Amino acid sequence: MKLIEGSDLAVSFGNNVILDGVDLAAEEGELIGLIGENGAGKTTLLRVLANLLPAKTGEVRFRGDNLHAFSRRAYAREMAYLPQVAVSHWPLEVRHLVALGRLPHLDPWQKLAGADLERIETVLRWTGTLHLATRTVTTLSGGEFVRVMLARALASEPKLLLADEPVASLDPFHQLQVMELLRDIAKRGACVLVVLHDLALAARFCDRLLLLHAGRVMADGAPEAVLTPSNLKEAYGIVAEFGERDGTMYLLPWCRLDTGLDEGGGKA
Amino acid sequence: MTETALPTPAITKPAPLYPLVILLVMALLVLAAFSLALGKVEVPLLAAAKGMLADGPPLISILLAEIRLPRTLLTILVGGSLGLAGAALQGLLRKPLAAPGLIGISSSAALGSVLVFYFGFAEAFFLALPMGGIAGALLVVLLIYGIAGRDASILTLILAGVAISSFASALTSLALNLAPSPYAAYEIVFWILGSVADRSFNHVAFVAPLMAIGWVLLLRTGRALDALSLGEETAATLGFHLPRVRFAVIVGTALAVGAAVSVTGVIAFVGLVVPHLLRPLVGHQPSRLLGVSALGGAILLLAGDIAVRVFSPGLELKLGVLTAMIGAPFFLYLILKTRREMR
Amino acid sequence: MPAWRQIRNLAAMAMVLALAAGPASASDVRPSRVVSINLCADQLLLLLAEPERIRSLSYYALDPGESYYADRARTFHINHVTADEVLALEPDLVLAGVYTTRSTVGMLRRKGVRVVELAEPRSIDDIRTQFLKVAELLGVRERGEALLAEMMQRIKVVASRNEGPKPLAAIYFANGLTAGKGTLINDVMRMAGIENLAGRFGIEGFGNLSLERLLISQPDMIILDHDTPERPSLAGMALRHPAFRYLQGQTKTVSVPRRIWTCWGPFTAEWVEHLAEAKP
């Protein structure tokens, strides 16, 4: 049984079709990159899977059961969602913010217990933010903030992590750190679905890629199978340079198709 | 990345809240005692306590039991309601300037109360008066939520509040002018500036049950408000049913503030100042702010009411005048502080 | 108000009116198109001037709660205290109050209208001065003097009966309003042989009497400006406060209708009588 499955998912706002017959399935232990051009429907798909947006048609199944069978709270214990623009409206201390991730496991008046505190400490250490525990979130750098937010998402011990562009605002060091962390989480048995714009990172870290184009799944499979020159042309309108190191493919988006530069790639 | 690494400073539980709570409760009790003892007429409390037991001249005990005690209780209830509702609203809207007075809830509660009271509906059934205030408040909380709920800027929120407040005040004034009682027109001061002077246990009985329901609704939203620190979507994925949270805060605020205004008029700025002062002391966590803001509101209002009685010569100042004198400069300071955000 | 007294008042008035009718036509400087824009001036006009010389009264004059002669005011033209309305009436004299209509009065004066402002009397002596001033303005000094003499006579009768200890009375008007030294009310109480509680607290002019002080002072009588009204108001609600109820059970309360105390004139005598009769 797959951890999460979506079949024939469609979403539209007015006449605007955002998702159109999307099928996907993911298992525990997988790190799946959700890629596609701006407006391809990546975020919408993630929100449907997070039960934030109802699909117009199709259904989402979690461990084989329709998502509607779960209460919000029950699903919250299994799934964590990291939005594209994570915010903290109040200047909370880092440890208190991360503790919010424990809320799905706490009864309304129940206080944080030893196990909760241990988990908080663990995720702070994973994300390399333990030294920030008593800092106020407003004093963090952009990279620190993203990692703290990731720690919050991990605090609930999710079986499914849905992360929307978690590395978009990070420098290369922290991009690698976060991607390594996501891979690590997947290795520990969770399923991680991450929206990425950086194709190099996607190719380097993800077990599988799901390429969305105009609301449909254009390709689904291993990075080498998805990031083909023809797929990149059609989905992104770009040409990339490919290479290989230690048996892993890498690529570098090189030029847009309509600039007229040919694939051999002179200097732009 | 390994988790069996070095021994690190363990994450400890959040600092307990009870020292602050005990401090606030003590302050509340001391002020309540002062509130009973102080006024234009000085009451020797200890002697009075004995006097209530013995059967001496009953005047002091009537003064205590029928005037000072209801006044003190009402001040605590109203101050607590305003503080609690302010904290909850700020948590729901995630805006430090979202106080019941500022966004027009209090003035429309006053309008609702005035309509019910002066046109004779208050006698229709027991809770008609507070219900009028609550209806007025409810209307505006819904309106404000419609405007601001979807992440409108603070500026939008406050401007909407200004418009609603002046509209409600104008209608209140109109209603008082049209009211059949010849005294109504003179009584606008009470409704606009608020006072707890010379209230009776009837008023306490009017508002206490409705306020209590409001308080329960508001206090139960603490965890959800915590989750809302991360925004509505994240809060939803943390397992909270947001429509239910909104309902609780909106109806709870309307009950608490509407009932309060219906017996004391508009007492401004308490719901703004109190949560803001206490927020740093509870690590800015909305859930921990709720209870202490209720205590803080009661304390502020008790202190204000004592000051009004002790320091105003001759004509007694309206309580709302005093809270406005403290609150308005504070509000300006807050605006300066959040100006960057408003741009 | 007892019916007999009303009849007596009307009789006195009829007599005065008859007396005044004769010599009045002699003077042609007498204003013949008088407009009042003040409740108390309305009362004085209705008392002193012949109906044909009253061009217009303020709309306050119609309110039976506030206006002593509300019934009689009904037959007159009514203005709404605005300058343009008054100007259109082409008055040769406008009577106004000192406090409330400053800008209207200013406007009228700029347009060359003769406006006389009536100050609020702070004692019975003030009433005499004011009343005679208005009577002279209207060219009916004799009628004014006769009415005044009657008023003073009635007050003197009351005052002559004042003996023994003065009862202590608390003025507890709507919403805790009280009156101390330097108010007509204080003087009326003095004439009626009543001590004003506000004096003990050093209140000058109008002030506030809290329920607490009222309760603890244990006055011999409480003077209200209204009965528990049938129309809901905070003022009325205060009279249902348990502490007030208790006090009311122990203390004589008397209410002075607003139409008697809001304005002044010969009917102020009725106020003095009313209070004196109510003494415990």
Overview of the structural elements:
The complex is a heterotrimer of chains A (268), B (343) and C (280). Chain A is built from nine helices and twelve strands. Chain A has 268 residues and is α/β, with parallel strands linked by helices. A six-stranded mixed sheet of chain A has the order 6-7-8-3-9-10, sandwiched between helices. The termini of chain A are far apart. Residues 264-268 of chain A have low confidence and may be disordered. Chain B is mostly helical and 343 residues long. Chain B has one domain: Orthogonal Bundle (ABC transporter involved in vitamin B12 uptake, BtuC). In chain B, helix 4 runs antiparallel to helix 5 and helix 12 crosses helix 13. The radius of gyration of chain B is 21 Å and the shape is globular. Helices cover 48% and strands 14% of the residues of chain C. In chain C, helix 7 packs parallel to helix 14. At the B-C interface, helix 3 of B face helix 10, helix 11 and helix 12 of C.
